[in-house]
């Protein structure tokens, strides 16, 4: 009877987890932006909660005051960045918007100097402006770009506000979520949620350190090389390093285009600098700060990023890695440990009992 009840509980738990995963997948497909915004808010709240809890563990401060100090610290850092390097940064970004089109034209001219390049450009329309004769289409693109920018700003504030509200009272939301599950499963669910939160916090802290190192090294290297707009390019390199695998190459593109405008071997030096920083970050800094983090296989990470990028766009590409880190912890705890390995232990116990029964039966038969 006990084994039957245990089997029924495991079957019910498995079906419930499968339905939950299917519901989450359906939500991801049909309401991807909502799902990603919610996860981004939760992700930000996890970072705030981790930092606040660390302060509480090291000082006699209350959690609410610690959270306020963290938010005040983040606001102060942002203000200092805007105050100290903001004006030059804005100027460099504006210069970049003027320089990149000329860099692209320069690259186009260099490509046309080759035989393959000439044949390629002969297939393109000679007057690219003819493609933009439809004023309505041009206006719709301008309006679309404006609405996209406004939507990105609105999403950013939604993530910030959601994260602050969740971090201010994490126990209320955790308790409310766990009450949706069976009573005997709630302690285990809380344990898994704590492990997931801890893994995400470590991942984010490591990523912030990595982004800071990439930005500082890039700025110093570009200053030494005499590249224009070093701080703007360093900011781009730091932000894109949040996206693993493909982020550094996306950040490399504008740097190489601007280096081509400088002439000489500047683009070669820029390539060496960026690849050198990437090697140091990937094989020295990241392994040092990620020892206690959940391991993310590179091929699986790249596949997951491409999948979310295709399904949801840039926001999915940005949030792909933390989502994968959370999923790996959840699957490892709830499916591998609680289901697969538990069933294997039960099977081994059953096999041992059968062997003991057979031995006892044989001993009884051999008894005169």
From TrEMBL:
Keyword terms of this UniProt record:
Membrane, Transmembrane, Transmembrane helix
Q: Transmembrane segments in this chain: where? A: 12-30, 36-56, 63-82, 142-167, 200-225, 231-260, 267-289, 301-331
Lipid bilayer topology: Multi-pass membrane protein
Q: Where in the cell is it found?
A: Membrane
Superkingdom as given in the UniProt entry: Bacteria
Q: Which Pfam families match?
A: AI-2E_transport (PF01594)
Q: Which PANTHER family does the record match to this protein?
A: TRANSMEMBRANE PROTEIN (PTHR21716), TRANSPORT PROTEIN YDBI-RELATED (PTHR21716:SF62)
Q: Which family does it belong to?
A: Belongs to the autoinducer-2 exporter (AI-2E) (TC 2.A.86) family.
Name of protein = AI-2E family transporter
Could you read off the lineage of the organism from its UniProt record? Answer: Bacteria, Pseudomonadati, Bacteroidota, Flavobacteriia, Flavobacteriales
């Amino acid at each position: 009877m006990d084994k039957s009840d245990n089997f029924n509980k495991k079957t019910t738990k498995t079906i419930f987890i499968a339905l939950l995963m299917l519901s989450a997948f359906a939500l991801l497909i049909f309401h991807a932006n909502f799902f990603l915004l919610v996860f981004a808010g939760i992700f930000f709240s996890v970072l705030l909660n981790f930092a606040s809890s660390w302060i509480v563990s090291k000082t006699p401060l209350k959690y609410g005051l610690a959270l306020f100090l963290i938010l005040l610290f983040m606001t102060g850092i942002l203000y200092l960045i805007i105050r100290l390097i903001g004006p030059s940064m804005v100027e460099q970004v504006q210069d970049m918007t003027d320089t990149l089109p000329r860099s692209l034209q320069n690259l186009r001219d260099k490509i046309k100097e080759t035989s393959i390049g000439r044949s390629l450009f002969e297939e393109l329309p000679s007057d690219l402006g003819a493609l933009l004769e439809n004023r309505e289409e041009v206006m719709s693109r301008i309006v679309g770009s404006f609405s996209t920018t406004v939507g990105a700003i609105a999403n950013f504030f939604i993530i910030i506000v959601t994260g602050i509200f969740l971090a201010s009272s994490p126990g209320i939301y955790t308790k409310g979520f766990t009450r949706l599950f069976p009573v005997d499963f709630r302690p285990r669910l809380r344990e898994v949620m704590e492990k997931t939160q801890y893994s995400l916090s470590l991942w984010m802290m490591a990523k912030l350190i990595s982004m800071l190192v990439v930005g500082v090294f890039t700025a110093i290297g570009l200053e030494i090389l005499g590249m224009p707009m070093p701080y703007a390019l360093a900011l781009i390199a730091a932000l894109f390093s949040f996206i693993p695998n493909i982020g550094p190459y996306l950040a490399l593109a504008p740097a190489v285009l601007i280096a081509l405008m400088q002439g000489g071997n500047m683009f070669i030096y820029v390539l060496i600098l960026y690849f050198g920083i990437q090697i140091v970050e990937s094989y020295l800094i990241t392994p040092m700060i990620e020892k206690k983090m959940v391991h993310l296989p590179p091929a699986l990470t790249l596949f997951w990023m491409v999948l979310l990028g295709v399904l949801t766009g840039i926001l999915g590409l940005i949030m792909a890695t933390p989502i994968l880190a959370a999923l790996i912890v959840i699957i490892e705890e709830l499916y591998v440990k609680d289901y697969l390995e538990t069933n294997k232990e039960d099977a081994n116990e059953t096999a041992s009992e059968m062997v003991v029964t057979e031995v006892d039966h044989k001993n009884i038969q051999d008894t005169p």
